[in-house]
From TrEMBL:
A Pfam family the protein falls into: MDMPI_N
Domain Mycothiol-dependent maleylpyruvate isomerase metal-binding: from-to ranges: 23-94
Transmembrane segments: none
Protein name, as recorded: TIGR03083 family protein
InterPro entries cross-referenced by the UniProt entry: DinB/YfiT-like, Maleyloyr_isom, MDMPI_metal-binding
Molecular function GO labels: metal ion binding
Amino acid sequence: MSDGDAVAAWVGRTYGGLADVLDAEPGTWDAATLCAGWQVRHVVAHVTMPARLSPEQFGAEMAAAGGDFGVLSDTVAARDAALPAAVLLDALRSPVLHAWQPPGGGATGALSHAVVHSLDVTAALGRSPVAPDEAVAAVLDAVTASEGAWFGVDLSGVRLEATDADWSRGSGETVRADRGALVALLAGRTLPDGRALPRR
């Protein structure tokens, strides 16, 4: 299996695992997530856009949002969160979603999108990550290699230590958590226990 194939498989397993969790626990759709102001259904509506919107539909949504992807994301999430759970679950399991890569982001962007947003849900629910361990580790390495620039966190004077692997980066005040929680922190999220990394 090539690296690209491995990443695609990790993406598919991540979205499929999230679908399995939500399918087994239908009462979680309205739960809060690590994405401020978004319930589980909003996060799923957001990540499944590539499986539900054609390129033409996406272009029309972008035009309506004045070219601002943030506005588009909020609009689509708010609207499509009302879709039936079965529709959103099917979209999470869609091969179209599993093969999608963000423009300019490539395989790394696709994997980080899947892993971070899956953690938005599972970490908030107190569940273990659904992404494969290798996928979480790959995203953790990629985000720390950018020195936090991807998500605007400030890693100066911070040492990160994983509690579930022999992994650490940086020096200074120590932040210890499992690798999934570290990814969420590096993505600018606030953990359920209130921990967050400083912003740039």
